[in-house]
Amino acid sequence: MNSSNRRTFLQTTLGLAGAAGLRAAAHGEARRSFVVFGPSTYILSEKGEIEWEWPGNTRDGWMLPNGNFLLTVSRVKDQHGGKVQEVTRSGDVVFSFDGSQDEVNTSQPLKNGRIMLTEAGANPRILEVDRSGKVQFELALDCQTENTHLQSRMTRKLANGNYLVPLMGEKEVREYTPEGKVVWRASTPHWPFTAIRLPDGNSLVGCTLGNQVIEFDKAGKAVWSLSNDDLDGDPLNDCCGVQRLPNGHTAVTSYHAEPGAVKLTEVTRDKKVVWSHSSDRKGGIHHFQMLTMNGKGIDGTLLR
User: Fold this and answer.
1) SS3 state of residue 255
2) In this structure, how many other beta carbons lie within 10 angstroms of the beta carbon of residue 81?
3) Is the pLDDT of residue 4 over 90?
4) 26 confidence band (pLDDT: 50, 70, 90)
5) Which of 25, 38, 134, 166 could make an S-S bridge to 195, C-beta 3.0–4.6 Å?
6) 80 assigned to some structural domain
């Protein structure tokens, strides 16, 4: 990070720059704090205040147990094709891995200490790298290469060792074994972005410009869905990031929401809105991680 970016970063972290660029509104009695990944990368408190900000565009990310952040950094033309970095709250980079193709679109910290990531390009693939940056595993993805931006998105390694992969261009979510065999698949009405394997074996998928979230069963059949037909005011506008919360609610982003519009919505199983977030900040929320709900931390495994 150069000195100018570090100065901006530290000012924002200390609360000297955050208030000027953001008016946040949380609708309903529920309160939430969360990390935002997208054109802006920051933590918003339950009071609607920025607690931390990273001066860069990210596509995915995680707040780690040690308080650091694992960030999937968007590509910068003529500099890099995307990267994965672990950064501290003070802005120090303690791990970095540069992609070698067109885009790095997701990352995930694994229990064995490795980091899983995907690369989009002429050779679309899943990688697992160790903390020295050495590639320990590679799996080629059999998808179209005409439009590399429409390759894989929020891929996740599952507890069974397989990989759940949303393939945008194919409008399909696939579960791959480490050997590359497809053992589950579901077709989606629009580009799939997020795919989450739920404890009961179902899979929850955000369908981007279809403005829809769909839950599929083990047979690939849709058993639950959410769209603007279910909600007042058409708050869903490009359903990218999705998270299933411990209370059974579903939270979903609206990546293309204009300033002042709803950018994050939480609904019950019967599709009642219990909380939503809007702000006048330019740029939407690509993905997110909920941190607290009404002053309490998120218990259990993050389903996102």
Assistant:
1) coil
2) 19
3) no
4) low
5) 166
6) yes
